[in-house]
Amino acid sequence: MTLRGLILFWFTMLSGMSWAQPFPVKGRVQAADGPVPYATVRLVDGQEGTAADESGAFQLSVNTQGNYLLEVSAIGYKTKQVSIRIPGIADPLIIRLEEDQQTLDDIVVTGTMREVGKLQSPIPVEVYGNTLFRKNPTPSIFEGLSLINGVQPQLNCNVCGAGDIRINGLDGPYTMVLIDGMPIVSSLSTVYGLSGIPNSLVKRIEVVKGPASTLYGSEAVGGVINIITRDPDDASRFYADVFATSIGEVNMDAGAVLKSGKASSMLGINYFQFTNARDINSDNFADAALQQRVSLFNKWQYPHRSGRTGSVAGRLIYEDRWGGELSWTKNLRGSDQVYGESVYTRRLELIGTQPLTQSQNLSFDYSINHHDQDAYYGLQQYIGRQQTAFTQARWLTTAGKHELLAGLAYRYIFYDDNTPGTSNEQFVNQPSVTHLPGIFFQDEIRWHSSFTTLLGMRADHHNVHGNIFSPRISLKYAPGKNQVFRLTGGNGFRVVNLFTEDHAALTGARQVVIREALRPEESWNVNANYMHTIPMREGFISLDVSAFYTHFTNRIVGDFLTDPDKIIYDNLRGYSVSRGVTLNADLNLNSGFKMMTGITLMDVYLYEESADERMPQLFAPRFSGTGSLSYATPDHRWAVDLTARVQGPMPMPVLPDDFRPAYSPWVPLLNLQLTRHLHTARIDWEFYGGIKNLLNFIPLNPLMRPFDPFDRNIDVDNPNGYSFDTAYSYAPVQGLKGFLGIRFNLK
Fold first, then answer.
1. Global pTM exceeds 0.90
2. Residues 6+ apart with CB under 8 A from 381
3. So what's the pLDDT on residue 7?
4. How far apart are CA 565 and CA 714, in angstroms?
5. What is the torsional sign of CA 230, 236, 238, 243?
6. How many angstroms separate the CA atoms of 596 and 592, rounded?
């Protein structure tokens, strides 16, 4: 090479290197209260990106000149985009972010009946969005709640599939279930009505553990589950979600949003069908209740002259549920030829909220439901009808440091059936009518930005049991914006009607004996809670720890053990206790990896004074845990979810000299799902599929003497006197099954 050529070569190389030399972009991310550590800084539509250090300082390199859009995001702050030009940045950039507490602090209403940030609420409230329930699709909220730590959907009958929802080991009737804040799920429908709530209607679910009778009255003894439905203004114009399983289950949710002037309406329909009678444990009984269910839902929202929004919603449910021996058919309903349990349920619900005044924050809430149930449990017929009406006027105002809430409430309950529960001493039918007016008051005092107290009280008058008083108190201390300590205590009460709440009282397998007039149950609770959200360079960790203690008096106890043919109900002459610790931990990383885990350790027991005996609560495991592992690819096209629930041994309702163990085994239930996302200009698609019960866990001996369900041969080759029984249920008899589904939303 000539000297001229060599010089030209080196000039060209140096020139190219100079053009390829990266341009540094330096800066600092700040907020009103100081630097923002570990903020994510990246170029929009580019590969370049970095994270700020502990002082909020960052530096990234850009290889080519031009105009760019710099995006800065951080947990707890609103994402910001800044236009920059390369080259042309002389001084370090100062990027100021605005705090957005909602990214860490969900809005909740259940704890105090007003919208407040989760961290600001003096009452601990757990919040679960619809995304959680999509990780393991189920045909109803009843099954979906198994992913929530400390909440236990419990099957009470292995034939008809009746169940209830338990919080911290307490029986289902101690849990109040609300829809949009209204006690729409009455006691009779806790047995069957919960299965009629489709997941597609759910915006989020709020859970308050511990007595909440001060605000919600009777039934809110163990806790409250508030199902917040989607707003028409936020829902897709049209959506659908359809999936089927390998055992023959088919579930379809569909809905549409309509506009009429300034009002908007969301119309939804849910259809579920399962008609495949399987018998994988070879006991000649269908492993799970067969069902056909239709649920229609319509919700309207409209503006009010006060500037607030009114709403009214209605839901209509019809369900045909049956189970029993494989040869059972509907023409054998109520006969003694082949054993079967068949339940027809018809239910109508109406709920609404109406702002009343423009100058004052005064609202009127109402709910009405009508429930008809026509059932046969073998030979025993059960026909029940319940009508519940609830009205409430709420007044919210602020006076200095005080957030005041006052209200008047009234609940009317009509109940009638064909059992001794609604008969007088002369065996004449006498429907139960309950009038329960009440008044409540709450004062939330913010003494300092870090310290808040809440005082509440409620007085109700029951037309049979007289006056009932329910106070509560809460202390909240927040040393930082992302952590809070709470100490709450309060009283709860419950007026009991066994035949509307306990499926065992309805089944034909045992005779019901009530020893005396049952008195209202009462409880006192204390709960200590600590929450902390920890921002990190690549995401955040959220911790929620609670210790709880609840002491019951007048507890209604069903004695399954004294006589195998009877259930003997009586007020406990003593007390019962529910105590324990719960831990929830969430890890959320910017890389697309998320982990949720929850653990509950508890001890639930009853103490009988006359016998000086401590008895464990049936179906209350000492240990239970939930968890999920999720990963989404950077382009959000693929996602994989592993969900799990682990349940420790729990006391079971065994018969005298029962060959089945008095405690259930460990129950591990794992589910795996793979999802493919497709996004177009107008439609978002999701194709998903997976496997439920990966470990193929199947319970043993869920039925006692399934070969003799009418007890015809109870004296033949039966030295222990066993009789047919359906209550030994600690896990679904389903086994491993696959599922496939599709969702789409029209924008």
1. no
2. 334, 375, 418
3. 47
4. 12
5. negative
6. 13
